TrEMBL record:
Identification of the protein by name: Molybdopterin synthase sulfur carrier subunit
The species this protein was found in: Caldisericum exile (strain DSM 21853 / NBRC 104410 / AZM16c01)
InterPro entries in the record: Beta-grasp_dom_sf, MOCS2A, Mopterin_synth/thiamin_S_b, ThiS/MoaD-like
CDD domains registered for this protein in UniProt: Ubl_MoaD (cd00754)
Lineage start: Bacteria, Pseudomonadati, Caldisericota/Cryosericota group, Caldisericota, Caldisericia
Statement: the UniProt record of this protein carries the keyword Signal: no
Amino acid sequence: MIKVLFFGEVKRILNKDFIEFDFTGSLSALKNELANTFPEVASVLNTCAFAVNKEYKTLNYELKGNEEVAIIPPVGGG
């Protein structure tokens, strides 16, 4: 079971802090799964960084199924 944490725009659009579900595969595959499940955030996901257990990872990182994944949108402001 993985826990996917949402922040920023993704959290606002989905009105969820997190979801939990069974998943193994790459972060890229997870991103695609989330885009299919929540098409309203598909374009935002393309700009997000992904952290696994509080460490930034590339999209080719392979999840084992027991991690915490944070989806972090770009931060802006002035």
